[in-house]
Fold this protein.
Amino acid sequence: MLPYQKKFLDYLNHEKRSSHNTIMAYERDLNIFDNFIQKHLGNQLDKTSLENLTEDDIQNFMTQSILTEKVSKQTVNRRLSTIKAFFKYLKRKKILRNDQIFNVHNMKTDKKAPKAISPEQVVNILTKLKPPQQGASMAQKRDYALVLAMYGLGVRISEALSLNIKDAFSDRIIIHGKGDKERSLPVPKPVRSALEDLAKERGIEKGNEALFVNARYFERLTPRAAQMVLKRIRQELGLPDHLTPHTLRHCFATHLLENGADIRTLQELLGHASISATERYLAMDAKELKKVHDTSHPLNK
C-alpha cells in the first residue's frame, strides 16, 4: 500500500462520501500503481520517493500497463485520474507536493460510441433469458432482472447493482449517479415485474438490503461479478463480445432517440452533467446518419 493511501481512502469515504464501488476502484488502481513503482524504483516507497516521482515514471507506468496487462487506453486514463486525485489530496492536506504528476496527459482514445444492437435483438435476448414460470432459480431471475433493468432504465452497471429490495416495488427509482448526482427514473412495467419477482425470491434479510446478490453468499454483486454474469450469458446464448453493460445503456439511449426522444430528456435519464456527454454518447457514424436522413426527411419521401 502506498504511503498515505489509507488516509486518502478514508477521506473519500468520510469527507467526499464516495460510493463503495468508487472507493474500491481507487484502491485497486493505487495498489497496481504501488506494485509497479516498487518494482521500478527497487525499494519501499516513502514520502520522499513520492515527492521525487517524475513525469517519466508515470508515463512508464501507463505504457507498461498497456504492454504487460493488455488493458485499454481508457483503463490507463482512469488509473492516471486516480493517481492525480491521490496527489491532489496530498497537496491539499499539505502532506507533500509533487506538481510533476499533474503535467502528465491522458492517452488519446477513440471516442466512437459503442455499437448498439436493434430492439428486436434485445427482445430476443430477453426472451431467451426469461425464467420459466415454475422452478426458476434465484440466479435465473437475477440475471433476467439485471439485463432488463440496465436496458429498461439506462443505468450504469454500478447504479443497477446499488438497487435495494425496496426499490423493486416502486414506479419510480431514485438513482445516485456520478458525483452523487440524484435522478428519479420511471420504471417500465416489465422492469418492475422482473424486479418484484426477484425481490420476492430473494426475501428479506436483516442488515442486507441488496437486490442483486450472488446466489451463494447473498452478498451484493460487484461490477466485476456482474461483468462475469453477462459474459456467461453471452457464451450461453452465443451473443457477440461487444454486448456489455455499457452496450445495454447505449441501446437504451439509442432506441429512445430513434423513437423521438429529445436529447435534453436523454441527458436527464442518463444522468449526464453536460449535454456534450450525451451528444458523444449517441454519436452516429456517417453511414448511419445518411440512412436516418434518407428514410426520415420529408424531401426523401
About this structure: The mean pLDDT is 86. The first helix runs from residue 5 to 14. The chain has two domains: 5-103, 119-296.
